[in-house]
Amino acid sequence: MRKASLATFCIVAFAALARANDVDASNRRPEAVETIDPAIEASRAYKQAMSTLATLTALPPMQSEEPYHHSAGYPLSSFLPSIQGQGPIASAMRIIVKLKNHSWLPTFVTDYLGRELSSGRKREEEFRGKAVKVLDLLQHAADLGNTDALYTLGQLSLFPPNAYFPADPAAAYESFDTHAHLTGNASSQALVGFFHSTGYHSVVPVDQAKAQLYLTFAAHGNDKGAQMALGYRYWSGIGVAENCMAALNWYEDAAEQAMAKFLSGPPGGRTLPLLPPRLSDLAGGVYGPGASVASTGLNAGRAVIKTANARAAGETWEDLLEYYLFNADRGEIDFAYRLGKIFYQGSIYGAPGGIASGGDGASAIPRDFHRARNYFMRIARQVWPRDPANPRQPHVSTKEEGPAQVGYAALAAGYLGRMYLRGEGVKQDAAIAKMWFERGAEYGEKECHNGLGIIWRDGLVDGKKDIKKAMHYFATAATQELAEAQVNIGKYHYERGDIKRATAYFETALRQGSPFEAYYYLADIQARQARAAMVPPEIAGSSCAIAVSFYKLVAERGTWDDNLLKDADDSWNLNTERGSEMAMLRWWIAAERGYEVAQNNLAYVLDQDKSILRFTRFAPYSPSNDTARLALTQWIRSAAQRNVDALVKVGDYYYHGLGVPDEPESVRWEKAAGYYQSAADTQMSALAMWNLGWMYENGIGVPQDFHLAKRHYDLAYETNSEAYLPVLLSLIKLHARSLWHTLMGGKNGLSFWEGDEDGRSYYDHPDTREIDGGRENGQPALEEGEELDDGPWYMGKARDEFNRRRRGHDPERVARDEEDPVQWARERRQAEAADRDADFGPEDYFDAAMRGNRYREEDDVDEFAETMLLVVLCLLVSVLLYVRGRWVERLRQEEEQRRQANGNAQQQGQQPQAQPAVDRGVFPPPGDPAQDEWAILR
After folding, report:
1. How many CB atoms within 10 Å of residue 227?
2. Measured between alpha carbons, how far is 481 from 886 in angstroms, rounded to an integer?
3. 322-326: long-range contacts (C-beta < 8 A, 24 or more apart)?
4. HSE (CB half, 13 Å, CA atoms) of 897?
5. 546 touches 523 (CB < 8 A)
6. N or C: which end of the chain has fewer CB within 10 A?
7. CA dihedral 255, 456, 504, 345 (to 10 degrees)
8. Do residues 558 and 542 touch, judged by C-beta distance below 8 A?
């Protein structure tokens, strides 16, 4: 009994103890949950999200923008190409996929394709799952109060890094708005201001007052983009009254940030970003090649237009580089030098002004300092085969009989010295840089002189400074028209307070192609003058406008941290829907900051005035007025920044009524004529002049005046000789219309009988001015081959021209010959082809002579006459085809009638009378099917 009681007691005790443990555990569990710190949990979620995001953003470029199928888990995958790759093999694999269910395909092929497709789908699902994980973790961290997660969530929603993340502008606005209210972050406030300024995706209505408020807060928070946006709004009067001094203050703050970033780089400043191209320029201009101001006149020599012409001719940078590499590897020094220069600047075309001026963004290639150094070193070693043991020891001259033996070696020494001075592709070493600069300076190379000046000015070798030596080297380089040397001399005088001399050097640097520093210092000088109390208001206003323009250029070029235009170009070149959307968003943000290139690109993409079939039966739909209104806004802003083609476009929009308020046609046409007149006044747009001539001819928007119409047609041809054919046809129609107007009793028509003798210029007949052996009015005439420079002049230009002509160094000759790498390569190819064609025997003389004669005749044929000849030939061929068809039809009908007559005679039981035998030769007898073929030949 006692044992039973004891056992019962033990059971009850154990049960009570277990119950107590459960109750204690249940009481402690809420305490454990309460002890978790939300900040720690938010930080953990944010770090995990960023770690996962890093794996997604590290994908290859193709995979980062579009889903890409990977193959894994199959041995052949490491040897065979991917089915979603590029090239003919991948294309063939995708074709085979559509045929994989056919029984005639080998089993191993269908098995491999099945595994490839399944693994690609699994990989894509894995990436999408990771993207969802990133967004969920960031949202979780943001809900727990992590502001960094909130900002990152907004960035991912507005700028998705790849196709696995959805674009959600509404979520982005909520994130940035909340982040701005919680932290006052300047970047978030700037983006919120962009939403209110543009109404992007209709997330919020357009409210310029709120946009101004947020941008002001962001600008005071030192956001460079917001400072540029405010400066542009005050400069253009967007949402505020125009105020040049307010624009000057904001642009000055933005330019100071850009200048500080530039000076924080290696000696000589950071490498400037490549010049961003306009999309329209890559197509030959807004109106195409020949009709646009961007591709005619002096603008035809711009690097971006040369790039557009090369693309139109089917030339690719890969082919060009392959041609250069082939010849450089054969030991061709000129090819090796140009190839090294291309790899160094990261562009086929360099900007004028020297090495420091950067390159053109339309012809960009991957920058490769190592390959550039390899080619430069290969050239330099031909003159300096070995380096001294101690590069700090005094330079020993190796100059021999003449500089012609150096050739490209001096130029290569300048690049090598710059690379060692700045640590580009090599370990930074000012002593080795000085050694190379001294070698090149011995032969008068300007970049080497400028580099030695920087070394002595900043004391980069052993801390030894010598301003006198530095100024000597800068002056030597400046006499060779090196823009960077002019800037360095100007900075010396600027720091000493000699503003007048500093201004002269900075202005000279601008004329020689300085793209950055000269603008900054000139803007600072003009800003001081605009703020001076004793300066008259009209002079202060002019100085303010100049300072704003120059500060704006500096702020727009110094985009090392936030290069919206480059990112937009990269997205656009992906040729995907997501890429185009992201490119337009970045262009829109940059356009709000005042970038003319972005405004032009956005307007060009949104342009509703491209199709000539809009108002015909082939295109019955009307364009979206909202899109046209946005495009017109960007065209107007681009035109306000001296884009003449954009100014003509604004006239086109008013003429066609696109994106403009509802108003009578006569009012719109008057405004269109005003914009055309403004573009024609620049003396650059032949299209604007032709449009005005047409409007005067028809009395649309202006009073009808045949004389003014003819004047504008003539001006169009004088401005652009490529307008010959349209101007000729327009003049023929104008004279015909004027004649009809006169015959019907009208007045002020064109006269066919009065000549233009009174209107001829004295300079139209230079032969009548020659007096006494080439002298005119007792003044000596120019020598044969000597050209008169009627371009812009400045004090000291005569001396600079004399120094330039006096120099006979081979490096300068080489520098003059290297302006256009593409054209230079074309000429070399043609020269090589001519050399190959020269090696022919006597039997080839006749063929070559005929070939040359044919080419000479083709060069002499006018394009218009050739076109008319083709038209006549087409008409002649059409007539011959018609005659031949009628002839064959007649023969066929005669044969059918003959057969019917024979058939009727047989039915009546009459024996047809025998036809006398006719000797037809090789022609088939009647009834033979081959007779039709012979009839056609006959």
Report:
1. 29
2. 75
3. 323/825, 323/829, 324/821, 324/825
4. 6
5. yes
6. N
7. -60
8. no
- At which residue do the structure tokens 């050239």 appear? 379
Q: What are phi and psi of 275, to 5 degrees?
A: -65, 125
Please state, in angstroms and rounded to a whole number, the distance separating the CA atoms of residues 600 and 280.
8
Task: Name the burial class of residue 112, with classes exposed (0-12), middle (13-18) and buried (19+) by CB atoms within 10 angstroms of its CB.
Answer: buried
- Tell me the C-alpha distance between 354 and 343, whole Å: 15
State both tokens at 536. 């008259």
Residues 774/781, Cβ–Cβ less than 8 Å: yes
**Residues 257 and 225 sit within 8 Å (Cβ to Cβ):** no
* Cα 826 from Cα 2, distance rounded (Å): 116
Query: The tokens 């999408």 sit on which residue?
Result: 128
What's at 425, amino acid-wise?
A: G
Q: How far apart are CA 415 and CA 419, in angstroms?
A: 6
Maximum pairwise Cα distance, the chain: 156
Looking at the DSSP bridge assignments, the partners of residue 364 are 347
- H-helix or E-strand containing 28? helix 2-34
Q: Which of 653, 694, 697, 693 is nearest to 675 (CA)?
A: 653
Sign, CA dihedral 895-901-904-910, equals: negative
The Cα–Cα gap between 902 and 748 comes to: 77
Task: Look up residue 388 and give its two tokens.
Answer: 């001294």
Q: Count H helices and E strands in the chain, helices first.
A: 38, 0
| Amino acid found at 829 | R
Q: How many CA atoms lie within 13 A of 571 on its CB side?
A: 22
- pLDDT tens-digit map of 662-700: 889 999 999 999 999 999 999 999 999 999 999 999 999
Q: Identify the DSSP state of 924.
A: P
Q: Facing residues of 359 across strands?
A: 350
| pLDDT band of 94, cuts 50, 70, 90 | low
Q: At residue 453, what is the residue type?
A: G
Distances from the Cα of 397 to the Cα of 319, 403, 413, 435, 444, angstroms:
41, 13, 14, 11, 13
For tokens 């009065």, the residue is: 754
Q: Which residues pair with 350 in a beta bridge?
A: 359
Report yes or no: 160 and 581 within 8 Å, Cβ to Cβ.
no
The pair of three-digit structure tokens given for residue 54, joined into one six-digit string: 């890093």
Note the pLDDT tens digit of each residue in 173-196: 999 999 999 999 999 999 999 999
Q: Which two tokens stand for residue 286?
A: 């807004």
Q: Residue 71's pLDDT is what? A: 38
Calculate Rg over the CA atoms of the chain.
39
What would the two tokens of residue 102 be? 């056919």
Given the structure tokens 């195409």, which residue do they identify?
288
Distance CA(170)–CA(176), nearest Å, equals 10
Distance of CA 210 to the CA centre of its chain: 34
Q: What is the 3-state secondary structure (H, E, C) of 540-584?
A: HHHHHHHHHHHHHHHHHHCCCCCCHHHHHHHHHCCCCHHHHHHHH
Question: What's CA 675's distance to the chain center, in Å?
Answer: 26
Do residues 420 and 437 touch, judged by C-beta distance below 8 A? Answer: no
Flag whether pLDDT at 772 surpasses 80. no
219's CB contacts (< 8 A; 6+ apart) are 186, 226, 227, 229, 230, 250, 253
Q: Residues 353, 358, 361, 366: is their CA dihedral positive or negative?
A: positive
Rounded Cα distance between 89 and 203, Å, is 46
Tokens linked to 724: 């010959």
Contact 686, 717 (CB under 8 A): yes
pLDDT of residue 654: 93
Distance CA 665, CA 501 (A): 56
Q: Please give the single-letter amino acid code of residue 7.
A: A
Phi, psi of 301 (to 5 degrees): -90, 5
Determine contact, residues 473/449, Cβ cutoff 8 Å. Answer: yes
